[in-house]
Amino acid sequence: MNELVFFFNTVLISGVVLGSIYAIGAIGVTLIFGILRFAHFAHGDMMTMGGFIAFLLAMAASAMGIVAPVPTGFVVLPIAMVIAAGIALGLDKVFYAPLRQRGARPVTLLIASIGVTLIIQGLIRLFFGAGNYSFFDTETKQLFKIPVPIEGVTRTINFTMPQLLMVICTVIAVLALHLFLTRSRLGKAMRAMADNADLAQVSGINTKLVVRVTWIIAGALACLAGTMLALDVSLKPDLAFNIVLPIFAAAIVGGLGQSYGAIAGGFLIGFAETLAIFNWAILLRPFKGMVPFELPTQLAIVPTEYKLTVAFVILVVVLLWRPTGIFRGAST
Question: What pTM was estimated for this model as a whole?
Answer without folding.
Answer: 0.92
